[in-house]
Specification:
This protein has 22 helices and eight strands. The protein is α/β, with parallel strands linked by helices. The protein has a four-stranded parallel sheet with strand order 2-1-3-4. The chain has a four-stranded parallel sheet with strand order 6-5-7-8. α15 links the parallel β3 and β4. The longest helix has 19 residues. It starts with 16 loop residues before the first helix and ends with a helix. 48% of the residues are buried.
């Protein structure tokens, strides 16, 4: 497995900008920094050897990619190197579980949330998971109510028209936060759209890539690319409400799996907040701040959203609600990085990384916080005590009469 031929380590000028912007390098001396672990060691890896000891500390937050003035995909080098290393060195069962949460989520399809959450969060289970390598202090997300999960996955048979969109829910919304998915569907239905949630979509694969299981992620990429192509040929846009899913679908597949020659669907995948902003600008949707229960909001931009260079779309959407004051925390990474902060040995690093954001949230005097990323919201609540929701859920409250 190798990086795209357009991406070579020789493009790195060793300026160390990525090191200055790496939250993990700042939080622990165990990580040698993105420049060394990525492009520098990649030159040795191309020769057949290299030091992989620090790879497990890269959280794949993409801040190195965001800051690199030469456009070097530092995090991609790290993830591909981790995958190659994991092929030769079997990883702990914990890493497989965290990387395949979407596949495991399918097994919960008929189980009530109270049973799942009680089984997962009781003291004995947490001690057992801690022994397995999942930190007992980590804020594991709770499964969403069974009725909401079923409603989100319900087959919608309405004919496809020019007012139809497809929703790629991703694993977090599908299994842990189905209410956010239902809120998005409701907003789009208020705008006159039919929303289709295809069951054929799989996990985007990002947790597998971050865990070193790139071959499994490649299998998901093949399935998802075929499904994206099916809708693209019908002229139906696919919306995502998760920045990490969007990053994979729009940008990462071709970089990570160049040998697959996967069809590029970057133009066909649209951020849900961006799509809805156009509806508000066009007057199709008219939010009323008087209906919003919270007038002071604190917003956090996920790293994987910033990595796409599309701006802070959730923040822009919230600021379109009249009478609602929204403050951009602008305080860096939250530290969770998907499943990184759940791991024993990484939890304290993640909390250190997110400490600036936690302070900003506590000092914001906001009554509610918002972020597009599901695991960011889990970490924000854990670190600050402030409730966190998706911007689209806040918009829906402002649209309801």
């Amino acid at each position: 497995m190798k990086a795209n031929s357009f991406h070579t380590p020789d493009a790195c000028t060793a300026c160390t900008v990525c090191v200055a912007h790496c939250p993990v390098a700042k939080a622990t001396m165990n990580f040698r920094g993105p420049k060394l672990t990525g492009p520098a060691y990649e030159r040795f890896r191309l020769l057949g050897f290299g030091d992989e000891a620090a790879l497990e500390y890269c959280s794949n937050c993409k801040n190195c990619d965001i800051s690199c003035p030469s456009g070097v995909p530092v995090a991609t080098f790290n993830m591909l190197a981790r995958a190659a290393y994991c092929k030769e060195h079997p990883q702990p069962f914990r890493d497989w579980v965290l990387a395949h949460s979407g596949d495991l989520g399918k097994l919960t399809a008929v189980a009530p949330a109270w049973a799942l959450n009680a089984g997962m969060n009781n003291p004995l289970s947490r001690l057992a998971m801690h022994a397995m390598g999942i930190e007992k202090r980590a804020p594991l997300p709770s499964f969403g109510p069974l009725a909401e999960r079923r409603e989100l996955d319900a087959k919608r048979k309405t004919p496809v028209t020019d007012k139809t969109v497809v929703f790629f829910p991703g694993c977090f919304i599908r299994y842990y936060d189905p209410q956010t998915g239902l809120d998005l569907i409701r907003v789009l239905e208020l705008a006159g759209y039919t929303v289709i949630v295809p069951r054929e979509f799989e996990c985007c694969g990002l947790p597998m890539v971050a865990g070193g299981y790139a071959d499994d992620a490649r299998d998901k990429a093949r399935i998802n690319t075929m499904e994206l192509g099916r809708w693209a040929r019908r002229g139906v846009p696919v919306l995502t409400a998760c920045p990490s899913c969007a990053l994979m679908l729009k940008h990462e597949y071709r970089d990570l799996f160049p040998e697959e020659q996967l069809e590029n669907h970057a133009a066909d995948v649209v951020d849900a907040c961006e799509f809805i902003m156009d509806l508000v600008r066009d007057g199709v949707l008219a939010p009323d701040g008087g209906n919003a229960p919270d007038k002071r909001l604190a917003y956090h931009a996920p790293c994987h959203l910033r990595a796409q260079g599309a701006g802070r779309v959730g923040l822009d959407l919230l600021r379109m609600i009249p009478g609602v004051e929204v403050t951009d925390m602008d305080a860096g990474c939250c530290g969770i990085s998907g499943s990184y902060g759940f791991k024993r040995g990484k939890y304290d690093i993640g909390m250190n990384v997110g400490s600036e954001l936690f302070r900003a949230l506590k000092d914001s005097n906001a009554s509610l916080s918002a972020s597009e990323c599901g695991t960011c919201r889990v970490q924000m609540r854990h670190g600050s005590g402030l409730r966190a929701v998706h911007p689209i859920s806040i918009l829906l409250r402002a649209l309801e009469r």
